[in-house]
Amino acid sequence: MKAKRYSFGGEKPIFTGSPSIVPGGFNLDVEAQNFIIGSEISPGTLAIFNEQTRKVKVIKTAKVKKIESDSKVISLVANDTVEPCFAVGDSILKDGAISGSFGDAPTITKVERKSNGEYIITLSAAVSGLAVDDAIVQVVDKEGNAALIGDANCITFDRTEVKEDETGIDVCADTMQYAMYERRVNPIPASQKDTTGSYLKANPHIKLSQSF
Q: Per-domain residue ranges for the chain?
């Protein structure tokens, strides 16, 4: 799948101001996760940066736009601001219902980015209880159980195209006096937020805004 490129930074910025970037440079951790060459990681995507390895993992999420009559085929929300970054082989579950054996979680068998902008995934099995407007999230194997890849300690700063070799990626770990417009980015699981819902649980320096 070759991703269509979009312009960013015009009508709908994702930050209320200009936050800081973690210095030093990081690369996308392509050993820990699958990515499609040429696909894009949207700005504001939850991520986990490691200052020792200088690598970044992303928390893959998306909002369900449509479920086909074959419930294994799902259209996800994708537009000029957000785009999912799933790949074949990713295991996914419904946000808020992450439980059970990892081996029972449906896996993505096909990813399509249509010329009309539709982003469609095909699964090995239907996701139980999934409905339009629900969010899906990538899960990984934690001692045989399905679990989130980890707690986000940063967010991606801008749009990043996945390269064949190394993919440099900038992240923000402090929105300073500003905030990120949560409704303009891919879904943020409630489990990633603190009790107020206004900050990331693992990094209270990332502030979220519900304004649109």
A: 1-212
